[in-house]
Amino acid sequence: MILSFFSSKSRNHLARAFHSGKRFLNPSSGYIVFRAICVNLKHRRWSVLERLSPKLTSSLVSRVVCEFQNSPQLALDFYNWVGGLFSHSLDSCCTLVHVLVKSRRFDEVLFLLRNLITEEGTPPLVLLEVLVESYRRCCSSIAAFDALVRGCTQVGATEGAYDVIYNLRSRDCFITIHAWNNFLNHLLQLNEIDRFWNLYRGMGSFGYIENVNTFNLVIYALCKEYRLVEAISVLYRMMKGEIFPSVVSFNIIIDTACKIGNLGLSLKLFKNMTMMSGDFVWPNSVTYNSIINGFCKNGKLLLAEEMLHKMVKADIEPSVRTYATLIDEYARWGSLEEALRLCDVIVERGLVPNNVVYNSILHWLYREGGIEEASLLLADMIDKHICPD
User: Fold this and answer.
1) Which of 43, 105, 111, 269 fits as disulfide partner to 100, beta carbons 3.0 to 4.6 Å?
2) CA-based nearest residue to 167, from 122, 212, 131
3) What 8-state DSSP symbol labels residue 246?
4) DSSP state of 110
């Protein structure tokens, strides 16, 4: 009788509402288990969860992990707890990846991805497919795909990283410039210079614009091929494009110039880097160490020690490694007194000589026949629990 007061359209709305309400009042057993797990996980009632564990399925695990996106530690704890009961599905693994990525817990993300690739033997493209499928459900970000590329490079899965990058491109989805630079750097570490240049030249087709890290990689690639003039031209190209070089940009060229004996070029860059960068960059400990090492390798020990004094005057603390370079070269050139003098300087500055310093002096003492002095030094090493190589 009451329904007769409503139009046909209104009756349909009421009927749908009634059936929806009926479903709400009679939820499925899966929904009940899901809610029970969530409530007890929130309060860390592991004993109750233990009793619910026979009801767990892989899809239910993924659903619970996704539900706790705002409590990533709980999601991770639950994931690890389930791992003690049965093996995770790839979907639940990728769901956790998305959750951890959203909370920027990238170390744990990379550990998980590396394990999936190496221990589980999951091909990167299979991982990508599941990450894509779970992407929307977890409201994730492109950082998940960045992490996959990084995970691949960390375990040496170069082709896997390459396949992921190009597969994403076919989906009109791209990794960020940071992951792109990571892959370019990986190629350089493998000394795959030709492949680096091919990929670098194709950046435009991927829609990328070079940043300071990209340019640093280009400088590094040029220096690996000893093309120093071109490397310096990249510095000017950066500044022309209003991208300030970093101290790394200069250090790469300075270090390469020192290694090939072009100390004049390294000193010019050292003196002019602040001016060239518009007072944006100053020499750091790496800069000084590279030049000191360059002088030492070319037998210019007085100039090396002069640079050491400049380093101290610039309020940049020399490391034991800095002194070790000088000590080894003094000893090599037969100036053991100077080498031992620098050992005293190390102690005076509150540093502790390491096995590199001791081994260097031991080597040259034995070589010059200073057996007694070498024995005393060796005893001192033993007292200080320093193991000779």
Assistant:
1) 105
2) 131
3) P
4) H
What is the Rg, in whole angstroms, of the alpha carbon atoms belonging to the chain?
31
**Cα of 326 vs its chain's centroid, Å:** 32
* pLDDT tens per residue across span 323-354: 888 888 888 777 878 887 888 888 888 887 77
Q: Are 33 and 66 in contact (CB under 8 A)?
A: no
**pTM exceeds cut of 0.90:** no
CB distance 184 to 199 below 8 Å: yes
**Pick from 296, 284, 225, 204: nearest CA to 249:** 284
Domain boundaries, the chain: 319-389
Q: How far is CA 207 from the centre of its chain?
A: 23
**Percent of the residues in the chain that have a pLDDT greater than 70, as a whole number:** 85
Q: Please give the backbone phi and psi of residue 334, each rounded to the nearest 5 degrees, phi first.
A: 85, 10
Dihedral (CA of 350, 354, 357, 361) sign: positive
CA distances from 315 to 83, 188, 309, 318 (A): 52, 34, 10, 9
Q: How far is CA 255 from CA 96, 250, 299, 376, in A?
A: 43, 9, 17, 37
Tokens of 387: 């193991």
Distance CA 140, CA 92 (A): 14
376 sits in which H/E element: helix 371-383
Least confident of 184-188, 216-220, 293-297, 344-348: 344-348
